[in-house]
Fold this protein.
Amino acid sequence: MRAAVLHEIGQDKLEVLDDVEAVGFGPGKVRIRIRATGLCHSDLSAMNGVLPQPAPFVPGHEGAGEITEVGEGVSGLKPGDRVVICWLPSCGACPACKRGQTELCLAGFMNAGTPNFARPTGDVFGFAGTGTFTEEVVVDAGCAVPIPDDVPYDIAALIGCGVTTGLGAALNTADLAAGSSVAVIGCGGVGVSVIQGARLKGAAEIVAVDPVPSRREAALRFGATRAVAPDELADAKQSVTAGEGFDHVFEVVGRSATARTAYETTRRGGTLVVVGAGAMDDFLQLNMFELFFDEKRILPSLYGGGDVLRSYERTIALWRAGRVDLEGLITHRVPLAGINEALDQMRTGTALRTCIEI
């Protein structure tokens, strides 16, 4: 079968090969025929080493498809079921799950160290224990979440990561109040989803911050009240908040420099929500006086900061009701053979989300 493979961390292009095999099928597993997958910035971060991932590996974790085979002991799933891939499944038994913090379950991360692909030359890993830049993948049954028949595969794929992450940051983590002032730094697919979440919660002012003009224009279409380049953020803070700072600032880039800017843009007593996934050696510096004196809350948001399955259901309900625009997030479509074109679209910021149709 065909799959896009990164041979070594640090390479900037993937090779689409036809000698890859999905392996590991057995009890508790399902085999999925991938139909659509989105390209998330986390895939780029794994490729360049910002996020830890053994290589060679098949990137991709934002996918949807249909089950072709079900292993022994799997209940509630059958061949032909349409599913979205959940790269962070919960085990239901660990301390985090028992506390109701299923997004902190480490069961899914444990899968990342087990190869789920193979080539004649050896083992191949799947990113985050999945790997969706492929025609077929074998994953734990918990990674396959059934979706209703009226949800297209491309929409379902987005729900698998970017939309759930962005909406959840606003709806779950920040839980912002109606009338709040909001700034969103980084307006790709996840940032625009944050904007939609803030709009749903009734934010009065939503300032989108991004260096790419097309993304700023898109942010306005999705609910931002104004959109500025990074060097215009200070003026927007003065104009919107009289210099006090925003009630909620979302950092959706994953870098300490933008996180520091976000902290400084947050009002005293306000909330900084860290959504971007950054590197382990990139440190955010705060002095102990400002941390105490300003009483700003710093809230990391992993995968939307809430129960993933409930978040999927909520997003589908909002999409059906026309309250969130998911189709508009897909600005480009390419076949698997065009995966490197999709990578370039992500790097240059020309795409909110590219759908890879398989």
About this structure: The two ends are 11 Å apart (CA to CA). DSSP finds twelve helices and 19 strands in the chain. The chain has a mean pLDDT of 96.
